[in-house]
Amino acid sequence: MSAATYTPPLPPCQEELVLKVIPMPADCNANGDIFGGWVMAQVDLAGSVIPARFAGGRMATVAVNEFIFKQPVRVGDILSFYAKLTRIGRTSMTVQVEVYAERFRAQGQYVKVTEASLTYVAIDEQGKPRPVPQQP
Fold this sequence. Notes:
The chain is 15% helix and 38% strand. It has one domain (16-122): Hotdog Thioesterase (Thiol Ester Dehydrase, Chain A, Roll), CATH 3.10.129.10. It has one helix at residues 36-55; strands spanning 16-21, 59-69, 78-88, 92-102, 110-122. The longest helix has 20 residues, at 36-55. The radius of gyration is 17 Å and the shape is elongated. It starts with 15 loop residues before the first strand and ends in a 14-residue tail after the last strand. It is built from one helix and five strands, in the order βαββββ. It is mainly beta. The model is unreliable at 1-9 (pLDDT under 50).
């Protein structure tokens, strides 16, 4: 089977779709691919969606535990960001984010381009860690 006819499986269903975005030419690096820092910023935004539900107020990114670029991102790709909460601690929450691209000319075919693990901490008005509210 040639690579042109292969359709990878759909992204995992146990994760929640939290963001979709299309990178534009202004987001390119000198090689013509999308700048890794732009992808990192989008992953941070996507990763914060689920912890925001639990934080009960302000929160901040405190760690990027792992960040893996698997494939380049190109102008016009439709990026889908899937996230799942992997840990809730006393003041912090850890999230796994996976990013899939639907290539501009091959929509419906998903390619995993990035995966990351980030930790967010609930903070008070002075920016100090505070407990994550207990969930029912």
